[in-house]
Structures are given as C-alpha cells and as structure tokens.
Amino acid sequence: MKLRIAIQKSGRLYEDSVSLLRECGIDLRNVKDRLKTESDNFPLEVFFLRDDDIPQYVQDAVADIGIVGENVLLEKNKSVEIVENLGFGKCRLSVAVPRNQEYAGIGSLSGKKIATSYPGILSRYLSDHSVTAEIHEISGSVEIAPGIGLADAVCDLVSSGGTLFMNGLKEVETILSSQAVLVRNHDLSAGKLAILERLLFRIRAVKKSKRNKYVLLNAPNDKLDEIVALLPGMKSPTILPLAESGWSSVHSVLSEDTFWDIIEQLKQAGAQGILVVPIEKMII
Ligand code: PRT
Ligand code: ZN
Predict the structure, then answer these.
(1) CATH number of the domain at 212-278, out of 3.90.550.10, 3.30.70.120, 3.90.25.10, 3.40.50.300?
(2) Could you tell me if the CB of 167 is within 6 A of ligand 1?
(3) Average confidence (pLDDT) over 53-81
(4) Which fold has domain 91-178?
(5) Atom from ligand 1 closest to the CA of residue 68
(6) For ligand 1, atom 39, which residue shows the shortest CA distance?
(7) CA dihedral defined by 33, 39, 44, 46, rounded to 10 degrees?
(8) What percent of the chain has pLDDT over 90?
C-alpha cells in the first residue's frame, strides 16, 4: 500500500514541497516534468498538479494528502482536513488601493470595483464587514487592474510588497495570513493513516530542526550555574570538562525565537568561544 500525495507541479510551492519530502529521507525518482513519481524507500506516490486542483483531488480521494497554500484551500472551500502547517510559502491576502488615494477604512470600499483571483474569500470578508462592492474576478496580473482603469482596488497575495509598490498601490487591509499546509482526505484507511503518521513524525522532526540550533560554548566553572540557567536544552545541557582547568564545554539546543537574546546573555555571563551549528533532524 502507498500513500498518494499531491504537490504543486511547478510554481512557488514546488521546490519547498520536494525539498521537504527529501529532508524527510524520502527518495523521489526523477521529478522533472513528470505527472507522477514514487519513492523506492518510503510507501509514497507523488502526483504533480496545479495548486488550484489539489483541494478537490484530496477531497475526492484521488490523492490521500496534499500540500497547498491555505489561501487556495479557503478559496476552493473543499472538505479536507489540515494536518500540519509547513512553515513555507508564507504570504498574505490583502486589499490594496492606489497609493495616492486616501483610505478611510473598509467602509470606503462600498460600491467600488475590486479585482481579485480570490472572489470567494473576498466576498466572505466583505459581507462579514457589511460592505457591498463589485468583485471582478481575474486570473492573473491582478495588480495592474487599477492602473488600466479596470478596478478601483485589488485583493491579491503579497509577500515582500514589491509588486504592489511597483504598481503604485498600497496595502490597506490584510484578509488572511497564509502558508503551505499539509491536508488529508477525511476517510483514510488504517493502513494509510499509519503511513501518514510516519510521514508526519519525520516532517515534525525536520521542522523542529529548522527552528533550533545546536550551541557549544566554553564557560568558566565559577559561572557555570548562571550560564546553565540561561539554557533550556532538550532535557538539560551537556557539560564536559575542558583540558584547561577551571573551564567547561557546555552544549545545548536553542530555539530561533529566543536565540539572539540568550546568546547576548550568555556572553554577558562569561561564556566564550560560542559555536552555533545547524541541526539536521531533531527527534524528541
Ligand atoms: O500553476 P499553478 O496554478 O499551480 O500555480 P499559481 O501560479 O496559481 O501559483 P504560484 O506558484 O504563483 O503560487 C503558489 C502559492 O504560493 C500561492 O497559492 C501562495 O500560497 C504561495 N505564495 C507565497 C505566493 C506568494 N507568496 C506571492 N508572493 N503566491 C503568489 N505570490 C505572487 C502574488 O500573487 C503577486 O503577484 O507574488 C506577487 C507578490 O509578491 P511580492 O513579493 O512582490 O509582494
Ligand atoms: Zn494556481
């Protein structure tokens, strides 16, 4: 038995999706320009599809699981289950208006024409805010619509904001923060669920390793207590005596969120020779 996963065929999620599977130790045969491939060392079959089709394929059990942006998932409104946020493909769906135009809140969009590729999410958002506007659905290059007189505003995906800026637009409402997610069909057999569990175990270990760093440092023994108190570690830090008497080597794991703060405090507490090393996998 194999678990069938649908990932984007080409585009912004393709590279990260394939890398994630590879970092999970899953060998994929020849992925270029293929519709389908499978792994020799893990019971996984991979389908390459347009991202827009992935929610439907997973809902209809043509694929068992899939990797897709939350933005697409919410727009398509299919019945699938999110099992894991994957931390890549981050973007937001925002409303933008011409930069030189004053914006007096969401109410000011009333009666306006808004161009978007996300009519479903936008119309739900507008009706939640009791705003009636005309939604003009277009499939690409949404950002040029105001400049050519096709719309008064746009609702589009933004990551750096560069595209809006280049088109003389400013972001005024954020409707959704999105990232790639792993979704599954509701009714997987026990055998497929077991494969999904194995895959999830690996995905979580990869994600955790990316959020954490391995830190090695030298500490004077009289400062050890203070330094150790700063380190969370997985259980407690490893402490080894150095050849030079009065000094120890301390090893620990630090999370990205608190990393710089703790490094500064460690230096202040007398730590020296701090080495920071990436972690490949982290299983706890
Ligand atoms: O062919 P297929 O249908 O599979 O792909 P697609 O062309 O529909 O999608 P693709 O590959 O462009 O994007 C796939 C997914 O990547 C999206 O559904 C989002 O979940 C995610 N993502 C993350 C983005 C962006 N960031 C992003 N910046 N998708 C699109 N953009 C576009 C945006 O539409 C705008 O044109 O990039 C431009 C804005 O970028 P900045 O950096 O200038 O703000
Ligand atoms: Zn698409």
Answers:
(1) 3.30.70.120
(2) no
(3) 98
(4) D-Maltodextrin-Binding Protein; domain 2 (3.40.190)
(5) 20
(6) 158
(7) 0
(8) 92
